[in-house]
Amino acid sequence: MSHFSTIRSAVILYAIVAAFIALTGRVAYLQTYGREQTIVRADRQQHQNLVLPARRGDIWDRNGLIMAGTVQTRSLFVDPKFMQDCYQEDGHSLVEMDQALAKLGTIIDKDPFTLAKLLGDRAVSRFVKIADNLDDSAVAQIQALNIPGVGIVTGSARCYPMGSLAAHVLGGCGADGAGLDGLELKYDKLLCGQPGWERQTKDARRRPIGVAADDYLPPQHGQHLVLAIDANLQMIAEQELRDSVEHFKAKRGEVVVLDPFTGDVLALANYPTFNPQTLSDSTPEIRRNTALVAPYEPGSTFKPFYATPALMWHITTPWEMWTIPGITWHTPYGRAVSDVHHYGNLCTWDGLVKSSNILMSQLAERMGNTRLCRAVTSFGFGRPTGIDLPGENGGKVNPLSKWNHYSTESVAQGYEIMVTPLQMARGFCAIANGGRLVTPRIVLGTVASDGGVIARQKRPDFDSLPQAIDPQTAALMRRILCDVVIRGTARGTRSRLWNIAGKTGTAHIAEGHGYSDTKFNSSFIAMAPYENPKLVIALVIHEPDKSIAHYGGLVAAPGACHFLERALTYLDVPASPELPLPPPQVANVLFDYSDKAYTDRNFGAPRQNDDEQ
Description:
The chain is α+β, with helices and mostly antiparallel strands.
């Protein structure tokens, strides 16, 4: 007979009460916070949110040729855990799996042992990418193998079908598709668009079974850019720049080509260059767009930019004769200014054509620093041009308060100021178009992914542009500079079909506390045809090998003139009429004047001592 135990009864009662409390708590939990967690977990198991990437917009040249685009890519991935499970469940050996991987490695050109080791090291992984950018043939062969756990995933990649053409303009994209340099960086937000999303409903085996209408937002694909660049002119410019740099064994070079009336950048290049498709193969130094971020001292190409205002302000006349005592002239404060060649007394016209440092320094002395500074800044030097590319450097023009008597002759010879090739081309456009200062532009407009025009870059009214000089003086300077290729410092580079006006420059490069005697910047700025300029070009070659040549008329002028001839042929510009002779008042005082120099296009050959420093 058993005896009633109070202690045992109490323990049982307490256990029942505790169990009841636990069950009550569990029910309360499941009806409150636990219910929410369960719903969230169930929703996560039954649904999946997918990001729908937007397609990056294309970049086209002015003629609709694609310069940068996005292509669909296919990559090979493996699910190592699923692969092993399938082979083991089906009774196959791991040897058979290795044989399948060997066949796969042959198709994608990967060592089978390395491939097997990679998958072995990541045996519990569910996604291992092992090959990118597969072509149709490779995809077909992989699918024919029918290996479990092996699949193809699609993606996108930035493509530059023209290779390195206009690389410094386009820039490039990183592995994540974001712009890193150039237009790809400047217009990244427009180009990349907005990604969409969709929420898929899954079955018990995680297979998609449907998408509700409210669970789908399509991506907004990126806009396309239409450039002012002409790919054909860009190609010609790059070829001439490359040939010039390589022939004269120079360190680097830049070329800028503008439409003088609109400011459209028809070509812009640097050399050495790179391929945006393979950014990792280039250095940050090579990717710098030095045509607009690396200012230099221009030398004698700067002379027209203060001589033109001097003519406009009647400080001098084209026929005024200047006394040049010898190859060296001493300023009133004792500074020595030298020419490469002594011609004797010259008129203002020939001071530009022969690029006499002495004559131009005397002209600058007469102008004085105030008017000299005003002339320089009227062409926009010392401030950015406003081009729609990142990183532009505005160059340097000291404020007038920092000019001294040394500045007068320094600026007159193209020193003590810093400019970019883009600024030089823009300034020369004012002489070409009748005096107006244009704003260089790269992008003409944007186009939607469906082809509709979104925006056009408005071209400002030409008559509203800043007036640097008057049309009459601009026309006079154009005519003076035509003589540079006929009887001046670029003699021998004259075109047989078109009249070219230009100016050479050869500047010592600053080094330490002075200027190097072996390192130079050789340059040429030009326009053509003289009667109605269609193109303005600035070509700069940095540090050509002096043992070959270093004067701008020998190093830079030939490449620039070759470009103009090829470009005008491509643009189908009619040949120029015969160049008018200098007016008698000027012809009577020109150095070694001969009508034959103008009528015979084969007259004369380049002479090194006709150039300047």
